[in-house]
Amino acid sequence: MGWFFISYSLLINTSFLALTVLAVVDFVNYRRRIQFAAYDESFGEPLARGISVLMPAYNESETIIGSVQAMMAMRYPDFEVVVIDDGSKDDTVAKLIEAFDLVRLPMVVDDLVPIVGEVTGTWLSRRGSHSLVLVTKENGGKADALNTGINLARKELVCMVDADSILDPDSLLHVSRPFADEPTEVVAAGGVVRVANGSTISQGRVTNVRMPRRWLARVQVVEYLRAFMIGRAGWSATGGLLIISGAFGLFRKDVLVEVGGMATDCIGEDAELVVRIYRWMGDGDRAGKVVFVSEPVAWTEAPEDRATLRKQRRRWHRGLAEILTRHRDMLFRRRYGFVGLVTMPWFVVFELLAPFLEIFGLVYFFVVLVLLGLEDLGFLSTDLVDPTLVVLLFSASILYSFLLTMVALLAEEMSYRRYRGVGDLLRAIRAAVEENFGYRQLNAWWRMGGAVEAVRRSQHDWGEMKRRGFGDGA
């Protein structure tokens, strides 16, 4: 049993090391390329591909105004913002109408992809240089809201963002660059999602990046950083990027229509969409790329209480389980390329099953310590793994997680210098240590519960999150 956990740990750490190397190489190459990228010229380019920014909203009264303000202030020559209210019960719609001087006008909603909730109204803004559209509809879930937005989108590219997200001003310029460089190859692109808690938000923009004061939000900052700068970047370098965050992703509209839009019967609709795109490409022998871009940033509000975070992580892992189960016939199939042969099997072994093995491994570790203690006292005789090896393995796992976070933090700070104060950097380093003692184990327990929910097929909904709203830091 002990050797099983040791072997598993060695395999997962080796794979993360490979992803880290690939991410660093890809990051260096990307930094070289963008030195010659004329983003100011792109901003004024009349032939730039238009983007429809879709923002589904459900009871987002606390953050919706700041998010829409940020979207409307984006630097991009041709874009529209479409807010889809999915039957909110709060004053989300009323706030939008008042803040942006919206007027109710009938609009034609195409029937390109199926929707469940009926559209009840469309609203247009009477001011602003870019188009703002508000769609109200009956509640049908986030995926259904996005499908409504796809039907209404008038641009060639579709950018999906969460209503609690705030994008950096140049995010659309950066995330759309792969579509300009390889217009017939790139079908989807994702950017970095970072935690906004603790930072100063002014007029819909992050003006001062700071580490949160609250411990739970602080550890999520380094967790997000590691996941995107190492995980997403590494998989993108292999051509096997499986996940584009629902908080910020850009897609070709024609591809979204071809694959049937978002799945309304799956929790992880954003990741499921990407897997379905790979299936569409493989089944039709179509060429295409799904890429990650480290430059554009979407800021999101992370949960600051355990109950909300637990619900979020259970939902995420349940979504992963449903996706891998639904598309299990893609596993080890050559027609789906690197994704079918490597990425999806890796996610089964080292993501889906990881929380089970981490919890069981932790229990095994403590059982071994107890039995060894009893053996030293002469109460029993056991033939266990060398205790020194067990302790070294446990310590190495913690150290490795810390080092991965340091690599991600170093790469991010060397290029973008988001944190201007030494104190914030020290708090980030401290959080990288803290997450291994308590948070990591809780997260594994919650994720394990999400997988169990997937097996039981219990009901799910939008999964509302308590929000404090974007303010001057917390």
UniProtKB/TrEMBL annotation:
GO MF term (any one): glycosyltransferase activity
Chain ranges of the Glycosyltransferase 2-like domain: 52-218
Protein's UniProt keywords contain Transferase: yes
Spans traversing the lipid bilayer: 6-28, 336-369, 389-411
Pfam families linked: Glycos_transf_2 (PF00535)
Alphabetical UniProt keywords: Glycosyltransferase, Membrane, Transferase, Transmembrane, Transmembrane helix
Family: Belongs to the glycosyltransferase 2 family.
Record protein name field: Glycosyltransferase family 2 protein
Organism of provenance: Nocardioides donggukensis
